[in-house]
Amino acid sequence: MAKPQISAVAHTPHAKYERLIARAKEVPAARTIVVHPCDETSLRGAIEAAELGIIAPVLVGPRAKIAAVAAAHKLDLARCEIVDVAHSVEAAAKAVQMIHEAKGGLLMKGSLHTDELMRAVTSSKTGLRTARRISHVFVMDVPTYAETLFITDAAINIFPDLDAKRDIVQNAIDLWTQVGLGTPRVAILSAVETVTSLIPSTIEAAALCKMADRGQITGGLLDGPLAFDNAIDPEAARIKGIKSEVAGRAQILVVPDLEAGNMLAKNLSFMAKADAAGIVLGARVPIILTSRADSVRTRMASCAVAVLYADARRRVAALPAA
Predict the structure, then answer these.
(1) CA distance readout (Å), 112 to 3, 43, 308
(2) Which of 61, 134, 144, 209 has its CA 20 to 30 A from that of 88?
């Protein structure tokens, strides 16, 4: 297989994110519940996304603290509605309640811990669960890779079983297709590309591919098990004799477990200077879930992906029943 030509645009830092943000500006701004935006990065991300017309933010947190952060960093709160609550735990609970009351179409994590937000989201009594497993996708802009790259799940499901992985794969495919990126090439990763009982993730990878063959997973092209090199490098796939539409050209990387995924995403971030936007899927609304260390640009990209996804779901829901 010949090595594909990578355009100069693919090497431009943040080019893939800029395209997503530009497309998000073309759809209606999403009313977004921003949970406890009490540091500069989270508050600036929400405000700048509002200034671009991507989201209409509702800030849920201690009003005095939000105002103090805005004043310290010269941020204009004029575009933002504020719902005053005492602390981060109350902010998470209030945000989830507001989603139930149809007062927002997206959730966005602020400066609180992920566990605090996800406890409210996953509560069996008051949370936002659906029939689909909740999972996380890193939307990565890797300067040295031609494709936008999804990595899943590297933040929510620690050791997912086969049924959970089916939902993890389907969530990622649905995101890819509904934000308008086409039909994704999905690589189910393991340490090797052959099926062996010695490495259980290879067996699950093969099972997931068969599930796709039988219509239990739809919308994407799956192959696996694949090692990381022959999933993303055409020459590595050629040397190993792997012939498929996915090998060497993967767009979605499905990792065996959270540990592997987290290390892979951070490796790309710190060694390949990739940006890693984040979104949680499978809940009643998309959740923009970013790290407190993320740049404002990464938060903007997370907003853009979530807005495009929510808009696509809204348009599908509005279609007349067949």
Answers:
(1) 44, 12, 25
(2) 134
Q: What is the pLDDT of residue 295?
A: 75
Going by C-alpha positions, the residue among 241, 249, 258 that lies closest to residue 160 is: 258
The span from the CA of 41 to the CA of 15, in Å, is 21
Using CA atoms, how far apart are residues 156 and 152, in angstroms rounded to an integer?
Answer: 9
Percent of the chain at pLDDT exceeding 90: 82
How confident is the model at residue 292, as a pLDDT? 67
Provide the 10 A C-beta neighbour count for residue 241.
9
As a whole number of angstroms, the distance between CA 279 and CA 114 comes to 12
**Topology of domain 131-282, per CATH?**
Isopropylmalate Dehydrogenase (3.40.718)
Q: Which helix (H) or strand (E) holds 136?
A: strand 135-141
User: Per CATH, the architecture of 10-129+296-314 is what?
Assistant: 3-Layer(aba) Sandwich (3.40)
Cα→Cα distances 248→190, 241, 242, Å: 15, 11, 9
Q: Are 17 and 277 in contact, with CB atoms under 8 Å apart?
A: yes
User: Domain residue spans in the chain?
Assistant: 10-129+296-314, 131-282
CA angle 314, 316, 320 (to 5 degrees): 115
Q: What pLDDT, on a 0 to 100 scale, did the predictor assign at position 12?
A: 64
Task: Work out the widest C-alpha separation in the chain, in whole angstroms.
Answer: 62
Q: Give the Cα separation of 306 and 312 in Å (integer).
A: 10
User: Which residues of the chain, if any, have pLDDT below 50?
Assistant: 1-10
